[in-house]
Design goal:
By secondary structure, this protein is of the alpha+beta class. Helices cover 22% and strands 40% of the residues. The protein has a four-stranded antiparallel sheet with strand order 1-6-4-5. Strands 2-3 form a two-stranded antiparallel sheet. The radius of gyration is 16 Å and the shape is globular.
Length: 116
C-alpha cells in the first residue's frame, strides 16, 4: 500500500501560459483548466487540480499563499518584458513506501523521478 503526499514542480512556461486559475474557499489557487493547445497543456507539466505555490520570474518567485486571486494575476501580469514565467505547482502523488522495496528498486524509482 502506498502513502500519499504532495510534490512540488517548478515549471517555466512561455507567455501566454494557457492556464485558467480559480481561488478555492480555503484560499488556495488551483489550476481550474488548461487551454487546449496552450503552452501549459502542450508542456504536459501542469495538470488540472494542481495547487499554485509560487509564481513569477525564476529569480524572483513570489509565495502565493495568502496572495489571493487578484494578487496572483498581478504577479503573473508583471514583468511585461519577460517572455517566460515560472509557476511552482503542488500535486498530490502516490508515493511508494520504500521501506518495503529492495535497494535496486529504490534506485530505479529515483532515476525515473529525475527523468534519467
Amino acid at each position: 500500500m502506498g502513502c500519499t503526499g504532495g510534490a512540488q514542480f517548478p515549471v517555466e512556461l512561455p507567455r501566454p501560459l494557457g492556464i485558467v486559475f480559480a481561488e478555492k474557499k480555503n484560499g488556495d489557487i488551483r489550476v481550474d483548466e488548461l487551454v487546449e493547445g496552450g503552452n501549459a497543456a502542450t508542456s504536459g507539466k501542469v495538470l488540472q487540480g494542481d495547487r499554485l505555490v509560487k509564481c513569477g520570474l525564476m529569480d524572483a518567485l513570489v509565495d502565493c499563499e495568502g496572495l489571493g486571486f487578484d494578487g496572483v494575476l498581478d504577479v503573473l501580469g508583471g514583468s511585461p518584458d519577460s517572455d517566460v514565467m515560472t509557476v511552482v505547482v503542488e500535486r498530490m502523488v502516490e508515493e511508494v513506501c520504500t521501506d518495503r522495496l529492495p535497494s535496486a528498486a529504490i534506485l530505479r524509482i529515483a532515476q525515473a523521478v529525475r527523468g534519467r
